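Quick one:
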Amino acid sequence: MDQLGSSVTVADEVACFRYFDSRDLLGFVDGTANPTGHEIGASTLVGSEDQEFAGGSYVVVQMYLHQMQPWARLPEDQQEQIIGREIVSNIELPDATSGQKSHKTLATIVGADGTEHDILRDNMPFGRPGQGEYGTYFIGYSRHLCVTQKMLKRMFLGDPPGMNDRLLDFSTAHTGAVFFASAPRTLSELVQAVQA
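Output:
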C-alpha cells in the first residue's frame, strides 16, 4: 500500500490463515494438484502465443462461505465422494464413470489432445466467528483464462449439465473477480508510454 499510495483503494479485506497441513476448513488438503517446479511457469504465465502480454497471468479470485454444520453432519465417506479424495491420507478416489462427478474430477480440465491443463491455486481458509462466517478465499493463476472458466462452468453448471459440483451444496460463492497481472516488463513499458 505504501508503494501504491492513493492510486488504489481497498475494496475488500479478508484475514486468512494457514490451517494445519494445508487443509481447508472442510478438512481436506487443498491444492494437491498444483503444478510444481518448472511446470508452475508453464501453467501460469502467458507465453509466446500472446507475445504482447507474455509473462503475465490471468488471476481469478472468489470468496466462498461454507455451511459448516450441514457439512459436519455428512458421513465421512460422503464428504470424500464429494471432494474425490480421502480425508486423512489425501489419496485420490477413482473418478466416477457415470452420474455425479467429484469436485476433483470437475476441476480437472483435459484438452482434446489428452493434455491436462493445470492452474496454480492458493486457497486460504478464513473465519469470522462473531459473524458466523467460515470459508475459503480462492485465488487461481492460469496461463489461459479459458481453463479456469471451464473449471467454473463444470462446477456450477455440471458435466453433464444439471450435475453440478455437490460441494456447492455446502459452499457458496459470495464474490468473484478476474484480473490480468501483467509482467513487470509490460508495466514498465506502460509507464514509459505514459511519461512519453
